[in-house]
Specification:
4 strands
Length: 103
């Protein structure tokens, strides 16, 4: 009977260890820039709003609804009056919520 408890605690320890390793991996990965970066989001209600996303040298204005994601306009980096040098991916301002498209 004691052997069953030891196996159970060993299995529980292994699962907790795997969760810890996965969490530390995700924490390290979170800071790395990706291909698509959120610049700003303005909410207009539950699951509705517009998003400004950076994809390479282009900036995409997207309309977001509960049923679809619609491309409204594509801007170039210079078209928006941003500095001539584009920042490294992930280095731009980020907002997520109700603070608007300023940024």
């Amino acid at each position: 009977m004691m052997l069953v408890y030891l196996r159970m605690f060993a299995a529980l320890g292994a699962v907790i260890g795997l969760i810890y390793l996965a969490a530390s991996f995700m924490r390290k990965r979170q800071g790395k820039p990706g291909l698509l970066n959120m610049m700003a989001y303005q909410s207009f209600g539950p699951k509705r709003g517009i998003a400004l996303m950076r994809l390479g040298g282009d900036i995409l204005l997207l309309g977001v609804t509960p049923t679809e994601l619609k491309l409204m306009k594509v801007y170039s980096w210079r078209e928006l009056g941003l500095p001539d040098t584009e920042p490294a991916p992930g280095a731009g301002p980020r907002s997520g919520g109700k603070d608007g498209l300023a940024g």
